[in-house]
Specification:
By secondary structure, the chain is an alpha+beta fold. The chain has 3 domains: about 30 residues, no CATH class; about 110 residues, no CATH class; about 150 residues. Helix content is about 15%, strand content about 30%. It contains 5 helices and 20 strands. Strands 5, 7, 8, 10 and 11 form a 5-stranded antiparallel sheet that branches. The longest helix is centred in the N-terminal third of the chain and has 14 residues.
Amino acid sequence: MGIKFNGREIESLKANGLTIIEAVINDRVVWPEESDFHWQPNPDMVWAKSQWEALAQGRIGYLRMHYAKDLVNDFFYEEGTVVTSDGQTYHNSAAEGVEHIWDYSNSRVSEVHPTTKVVWTMYFPNNQGVYPATIEYGETYFCFDGVSADWYPCLWTDIAYFDLLNQASVFIDDSSVALYLGFFNECRKLQAVPKEFTMKLSAYRLQGIFGGCAALVSVPYLDMTNAIYGMGMFEGRTNLKELKLVNVNISIDLSPCINLTKSSLRNVLAGLTNRTGQDKLAIGLGAANIAKLSQSELSVALNKNWDVVETITNWPDYSEEE
């Protein structure tokens, strides 16, 4: 039995005295400030955030912090304004890409990984409806180590993966009547939706919200007060273990999520609204999940006028104009 933190087994741990630097959990490097763990920020993150706060001045945008050794040639493909830690600003009117040569001014030697330097990129999008996957896969780096050259996708750190500095407001505009589809679609590296993602989904159609999120393990909180259609919400999410939904007032199907914990299933049932006196809705749990629950636990849904079924086959018609 290894060390556990918040119920998760830590496979390896790096520390400086009593200060945790990083851990490996579920084969993934987790940094102290990651929202799902709330450890103390490491000094590199503190520095990068201070740079962000000085420059962003409340604007909605994204911060990427990078530990660099041999990063020289860089290409930015985002549509909008890109600012680099070595003082360059690029305005891209179309996603054609612009080359940047790093000179490492205003960088710092990492206190966590002393063989690297800490650099950052800030991105302020033209389109306020940018999707997370655009940020995750929007950049590619060209690196040369003196022997070989190669391209590789950038890895956004958890320091501001969903712009938590501005409460992810770039993604949800409460004044908009648009129906958002596939909000986290194709975020293939996403393992946990940040706990700070707590806004009520506005005029939100949830079909495909987690499409392509093959690594997704945890959705710790999702307020579905204003959700209007849930078909395909969890399709293919077999790795999902932790889930908490609140104010659920639409049919949802969790049958693909065969690895949900019992506590997660109980959380979901507790989050169903009471539909006594209204039309009955259905929640699909799948045979594997139903077997994890006692009859008294399943009755939580039944007593709220919900049907518990293995899977939902008949979904209501839905018009894009609604």
